[in-house]
Each structure stands twice: as structure tokens, then as C-alpha cells.
Amino acid sequence: MLAKKPLTDRTIKAVKPALPGKRTLLWDALVPGLALRVTDRGKRSFVLVTRYPGSTHPAPRRLGAYGAISLGQARTKARKWLEMIASGVDPGIREIERRQQTFQAIATNYFQRKAKVRLRSSRSASVRNCGTLRTVSAASAISSGCSSRYL
Asked: Residue 36: which H helix or E strand, with range?
């Protein structure tokens, strides 16, 4: 294993792709557990390798792709994740919960539930829904009184 050195943008840009079928980790000396993962195709991403709550073995989790987040942002995010882990909170689960509480996620969930209810109720008499529901088969739509212009 190579000695840990502080990562810099210059060293990150100079890293060569890993061997075919392998991944290389370059460790940062400033933040414990932070590494740059380089794939055989040359993709670079920041990972934090540590024991997460509920896990017995250290595992790498992706912080972000190099370019999408800078080295400074990756270090800040890694320090924040380490604080959360020290307090017993899994940062991956926290991110999922945060994403589920956005307006877009709530609206998508609402419309998916409403679409299921609407599909169940539309199978019996869907004359007024002929133009909006296209998931009903053509034979059942014609038998329920829909004109062919809605199909």
C-alpha cells in the first residue's frame, strides 16, 4: 500500500486508469477514510471508506464524481459524514430520507397512488374517461361506448 499523501487537483488529473477489471484507490492524508476511486475506464469519484452504522465491515460509499464536486467539497462532505457516523446516523439513509421529502418526490408518489385508484375504478364504466385513460384495451373501450377517435 502506498503512503498517504494529501490529494491535490494536479495529482487527481494525472492519475492513470486502473488495470482492466480493477479499481484503484488513492487515499487522502487530510481526511481519514477519504479516497479517490479510479476505474479502468478512467472515471474518477470520491469515496468514503469506513464502518457505517449497522455494518461490521468497512465499505466504500460514493460521495460524488470528480468534476461534479471539487476536492474541497468532497473533504467537507466526508467530514460531515464522519460526524454523522460518530453520532450513530447512517448518512446514506439520511440522504434517501431527504430526497423523499422533496416536493417532486411527494407529488410523484401522490400521482402514482391516484393513478392506481383511477385505473381500478375506470374499468367498470369509463365513458367519461375515454380520452384520458389509454391503458384500457380497445375491445373494452368500444364495448363501454367510447368512440374510436379516443383510441
From this structure: strand 34-39
Mean pLDDT per segment of 10 residues, for the chain of length 151 residues? Answer: 81 94 94 95 95 90 95 96 92 79 81 75 52 48 50 43
Structure-block grid coordinates of residue 57 = 465491515
> Which residues have C-beta within 8 Å of that of residue 129, sequence separation ≥ 6?
118, 122
* Residue pointed to by grid coordinates 462532505: 77
User: Grid coordinates standing for 125?
Assistant: 364504466
Strands (E), 3-126: 23-27, 34-39, 44-50, 59-65
- Residue 144 one-letter amino acid: S
3-class DSSP assignment, residue 10: helix
CA atoms within 13 A on the CB side of 50: 23
The domains located in the chain, with CATH, are 9-89 (3.30.160.390), 103-150 (no CATH)
Can you give the pLDDT at residue 27? 94
